[in-house]
């Protein structure tokens, strides 16, 4: 057991070292969220607020999309860092791990923890932008957001690790990731409220893990900004006729991660 | 002497995809044994099936048929036990180019469950042996081909394997570096009775092998001591033996 954890730890540490050695990427990674917040969010806020100053009940559009932009960063970074494992396959390093006497599941857990950590660090950096768009960061909000960010990062990283088990080359992987990421982002409620959607779209939203990711973070941010629950629910969606809640989000994200990580461990254990 | 590798009727075929879709037999019912402590040369033209054989013996690839045991363990049923006993230097580099030399070795040590103190001590020793001590904390990306190869040799030895698979360990290296690498390998063989399974295209390197197998088109066509092979083909060097045994044509063309 101790040896098992040591292997997970050393794989995890390797990802963090890679991230740290490439920290320019971390700064560059902030430009996308800034574009969404300041340009897209800022522009939409001013055109939506002809006359009255907010989207609904005291929230500007840019404040509305703030949790969505954090989720976007997590979607892209967590899934994308699985590309490292595909590169390991392509450039041979994976063989060094596969020929060692370690269970295949360590690769799955080590890599998903690594991917989740780097994506979570990246997303946490976005919080710094909050005050510039009128999101008042309180210690409680941060304390609630950090574990939420980690959970969401893990759930999304588990999608990435399943995809790496299926692809041997970067091209195929990148194609599928782009194909998955964009719809996941657009249909997650990151950019628009989900209350009034056509029913086919609402079905897709319910099946999209990113919807729960956006929802849990938005609930934390808006609740801490003293926005009434009624208003928050109007931005959200329902399952089986009930409004989702932060707890439902968390349970679904935990379950989703568990299922996908188990699947990935199975896929990696299958001998060629 | 007891055999540490026993191969019986081992085969592996691949399905080629795309326009030339068909099945090729990379390794075709080969059988042989390698003795404890032997330096065993495994020769053959490009595409003969050497790396495929090594991949099966090192548990990275399942055989299509046949069986083999390595260090007494079945390569299909007892993969983890096999993995504990072997070290391998792959034909193509498998280092993490973003980590330092030390970090690469340390990573390997953790994978093999070596405790921290022993790890540190062996890493220092091995880096000294392959003359990379002063570059221990450089990123591997900055290494030359020869330095990378030396580092991989150090890594392959870190967990004290009983059997070491070397798939073209001196590929693309200059004569000086090749000589150095052979000096390390000889040193290890003297200090520990390690079995070495070697493939190479530099045939002067196999003059010192205890025995040599020649594989061509997935089949073993000769297996004996270098001196016996030279007598059989009435030539003076292993290079000539190789050409006599496998012919002068480029074999891979026939396969394609
Ligand atoms: N993953 C694979 N998929 C399809 N064919 C493969 C695969 N791996 C090997 N082959 C084929 O199997 C045959 C043997 O390849 P192998 O790599 O074992 O040769 P080798 O003896 O190591 O050659 P070299 O000296 O060039 O390294 C070749 O025809 C090769 O094309
Ligand atoms: Mg080869």
Provide a quick synopsis of the model.
By secondary structure, chain A is mostly helical.
Helix and strand topology:
The complex is a heterodimer of chains A (272) and B (256).
Chain A lengths: L1 H20 L1 H6 L2 H18 L12 H20 L2 H9 L1 H6 L5 H24 L11 H28 L3 H17 L12 H9 L1 H16 L4 H7 L2 E2 L2 E2 L2 H24 L3
Antiparallel strand pairs in A: 1-2
Helix pairs in contact in A: 1-7, 3-4, 4-7, 4-8, 4-9, 4-11, 7-8, 7-13, 8-11, 8-13, 11-13
Chain B lengths: L2 E14 L5 E14 L3 E5 L6 H8 L7 E6 L2 E2 L4 H7 E4 L11 H11 L4 H14 L15 H13 L5 E5 L7 H17 L3 E5 L11 E6 L2 E6 L1 H8 L4 H9 L4 H5 L1
Parallel strand pairs in B: 3-8, 3-9, 6-7, 7-8
Antiparallel strand pairs in B: 1-2, 1-4, 4-5, 9-10
Helix pairs in contact in B: 3-4, 4-5, 7-8
The structure holds adenosine-5'-triphosphate and magnesium ion.
What does this structure look like?
The complex is a heterodimer of chains A (272) and B (256). Chain A has 272 residues and is mostly helical. Chain A has one domain (2-269). Chain A has 13 helices and 2 strands. Chain A has helices at residues 2-21, 23-28, 31-48, 61-80, 83-91, 93-98, 104-127, 139-166, 170-186, 199-207, 209-224, 229-235, 246-269; strands at residues 238-239, 242-243. Chain A has a two-stranded antiparallel sheet with strand order 1-2. In chain A, helix 4 runs antiparallel to helix 7, helix 4 packs antiparallel against helix 9 and helix 7 runs antiparallel to helix 13. Chain A is globular. The two termini of chain A are 26 Å apart. In chain A, 46% of the residues are buried. By secondary structure, chain B is an alpha/beta fold. Chain B has helices at 50-57, 79-85, 101-111, 116-129, 145-157, 175-191, 226-233, 238-246, 251-255, and strands spanning 3-16, 22-35, 39-43, 65-70, 73-74, 86-89, 163-167, 195-199, 211-216, 219-224. Chains A and B meet through helix 1 and helix 6 of A and helix 2 and helix 3 of B. The structure holds adenosine-5'-triphosphate and magnesium ion. Magnesium ion is lined by residues 50-51, 91, 167 of chain B. Adenosine-5'-triphosphate binds next to strand 1, strand 2 and helix 1 of chain B.
